[in-house]
User: Fold this.
Amino acid sequence: MLLVRRDWSELPGEDLTTSALPEVSGWIAIYEEMASVLRSVIARAEGSPDAEELSRHLAWIEGRLATWRDRHAELAGLVIDRKDHTLTYAGKSLRLTRREADLLDFLLRHPRHPFTSKQLATLAWQNSRLSEAQVRTYIMRLRNRLREVGLGEVITVIRNRGYGIAATLAVGADR
Assistant:
């Protein structure tokens, strides 16, 4: 019999009202790890009576992860309207292409994680056919566009690991 805590509302020490970006990033990392582990357990339990209950718990964890990612974006002062592809930061708005908005939103929702060009093509756009050169072009174009609102350095290149979000984003958001 599977013993699972059924009354989760939050984990011990978790505080969704925190205004500390490093703490928010930490909770994102915790929930990402929990989701990853649970996905592998579900894959091994497929077809068993416990798989359905495990899937319900995964849905809860993924929902909590989305909540923390939204909190991160809110504290960072960046708002991306995914429907209109508009970025708002520090009172300035910038119209983005769909791909630019998807890319920036994906990177912001995964702080502390660098992604290769191939990973970005697959995870941010669900298009594994994009070449690494095409992804680099989108990154370069988006970085240039972000300069218009004072975020030119927010997307960083991490040598031999890929692209990520600058740690200084947290500092700039605390103003």
